[in-house]
């Protein structure tokens, strides 16, 4: 059952930013991931994710305790200022939270999405995803496994998550299961309301 969870799929809206990369960069990323040589990137991503988590909680607190939320925001800004002075933080991860939501079909093993341009089968991508309900950032490498023209929506691009940290794959799986549960509850409620 555990292995099958990575294939559960949902239609959802998330933020997707991608960059086409060459084969050598793709292979190098895979080697580093397999040999655990991503510690610096992983630390930066963890720092970035902690900041996202803090921002999410502060946003929730603003309605309940505005002064307390403001103090927490100031402390978080101070920590961010200190962390950005560290040498490895010079290549800070970009904030993609302002990017538009994109409709995707998402699972722990990959995703499908519509793009205005075609991507070649076998093309390699660096992906930065943001799951908006949890502010969870996902950083991974993928391979284009499908590219079909759909007149009404553009190109349907299928991407297999080729290189991804297991904890990030698990975050996607948890998101998918949570969203499936929400969608089922909404359907049941709508069905009960119409009866």
What is the helix tally? 4
Number of domains: 1
Query: What is the global morphology?
Result: globular
SSE series: EHHHEEEEEH
Determine the structural class based on helices, strands and strand pairing.
Answer: alpha+beta
Nearest-integer average pLDDT? 82
Task: Give a quick account of the main beta sheet: strands, pairing sense, barrel closure.
Answer: 6 strands, antiparallel, barrel
Low-confidence residue ranges: 87-91
Number of DSSP strands?
A: 6
The gist of it:
With 195 residues, this protein is of the alpha+beta class. It contains four helices and six strands, in the order E-H-H-H-E-E-E-E-E-H.
Q: Explain this structure to me?
A:
The protein has 195 residues and is an alpha+beta fold. The protein has a single domain, classed as predicted glycosyltransferase like domains (Thrombin, subunit H, Beta Barrel). 43% of the residues lie in helices and 29% in strands. It has 4 helices and 6 strands, in the order βαααβββββα. It has a 6-stranded antiparallel beta barrel with strand order 1-2-3-6-5-4. The longest helix is centred in the last third of the chain and has 29 residues. It is globular and about 50 Å long. The two termini are 35 Å apart. About 3% of the residues have low confidence.
């Amino acid at each position: 059952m555990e292995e099958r969870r990575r294939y559960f799929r949902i239609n959802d809206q998330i933020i997707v930013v991608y960059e086409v990369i060459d084969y050598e960069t793709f292979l190098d990323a895979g080697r580093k991931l397999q040999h655990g040589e991503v510690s610096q990137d992983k630390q930066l991503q963890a720092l970035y994710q902690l900041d996202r988590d803090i921002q999410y909680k502060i946003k929730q607190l603003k309605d309940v305790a505005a002064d307390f939320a403001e103090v927490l925001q100031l402390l978080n800004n101070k920590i961010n200022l200190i962390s950005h002075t560290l040498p490895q933080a010079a290549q800070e991860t970009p904030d993609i939270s302002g990017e538009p939501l994109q409709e995707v079909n998402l699972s722990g093993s990959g995703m499908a999405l519509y793009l205005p341009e075609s991507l070649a089968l076998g093309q390699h991508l660096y992906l930065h995803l943001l799951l908006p309900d949890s502010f969870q950032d996902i950083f991974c490498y993928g391979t284009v496994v499908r590219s079909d023209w759909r007149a009404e929506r553009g190109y349907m691009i299928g991407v297999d998550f080729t290189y991804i940290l297991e904890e990030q794959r698990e975050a996607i799986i948890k998101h998918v299961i949570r969203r499936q549960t929400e969608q089922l509850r909404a359907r049941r409620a709508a069905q009960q309301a119409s009866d």
